[in-house]
Amino acid sequence: MVRFILWRLAATLALLLVVSLLVFWACEILPGDVAQVALGQFATPENVRALRLEMGLDQPALQRYLSWLSGALQGDWGRSLVTKSAVSALLSERVANTALLAGVTTLVAVPLAVFLGVVMAMWNGRALDRSASIVILALSATPEFLLATLLVLLFAVQLGWLPAVAYLSGGAGIGQTARALLLPTASLVVVVTAQIARMTRAILGNILTQPYIEMAVLKGVAPRRIVMRHALRNAVGPIANVVALNVAYLVSGIVVVETIFAYPGLARLMIDSVQSRDLPVVQACALIFCASYVLLILLADVLARIFDPRAEARLPVDAL
């Protein structure tokens, strides 16, 4: 197990290095002169030349990449071309807001999804299972932007119960924060819950066809006990893997939701920075998103390995 974790960690670090190179290269090939865009179309050639020297654009691309990567590893992402402030200062509050939104979504969606999946498995093949499967399949296929737009039209425009813009001020209280988070969280919770519940139902359904489950049925064990005591125990690993993968999926879902609700998170900062060609901020946001996704995939692999019921059977062979 330790060898597997070390190997996956090494592979993850190598992948993050490749990702950082791709992020830097993608910003490099963007059309136009960064210095010219930052100063505007009426900037003089002398000012553009001075800014290029200040940004180090006269240096080779490899040297600039190594300098940027070294600074990123030390927490120094450079300075914003728009606000002239440190990128790390811009990221601190936005990262906290995005982590809050993703954390609340995870805390609500995961227990609800696992509960729904277990209930559907316990009512396998019955009307409740078939009806819930149809609804969950439809919700899991619904894109976040459509669901978020419908929620805004219903609860913000038609009913006027909740704000259409998820604005968070520095001194916002718990009530104001909850009102601001309700619609964006609901948009993410519905999609994530549907995906995890559908996969949980599929995992438990597959386990319920195993021979030892059939033996328990023949012995007269109650269906609820079969699911909770026998099937669910062996499903912990696959379900943990599914949960980790769907939390990683939030990385892309949050980008859409934060844009629709103008939520002051990391994704919104990245979209605004792309529009203003603020490349240091774009590079930092893109690398944080990619690193979050890769690390969550690593967590999913490790959890699947830890909870794999076949791992114990392999131990004596490995010991030999």
Describe the structure.
The chain is an all-alpha fold. It has one domain: MetI-like (MetI-like fold, Orthogonal Bundle), CATH 1.10.3720.10. Helices cover 78% and strands 0% of the residues. It has 13 helices and no strands. α5 runs antiparallel to α6 and α10 packs antiparallel against α12. The chain is globular. The chain starts with a helix and ends with a helix.
Overall 3D shape:
globular
CATH topology: MetI-like fold
- Per CATH, the architecture is Orthogonal Bundle
Series of H and E elements: HHHHHHHHHHHHH
Radius of gyration: 24 Å
Quote the average pLDDT: 80
Number of strands: 0
Oligomer: single chain
Question: TL;DR of this structure?
Answer:
The protein is mainly α.
Features:
mainly alpha; MetI-like fold; 78% helix; disordered C terminus
Map the helices and strands:
Elements: H1 2-28, H2 34-39, H3 45-55, H4 61-73, H5 87-122, H6 127-140, H7 144-158, H8 174-207, H9 211-218, H10 223-261, H11 266-276, H12 279-306, H13 311-319
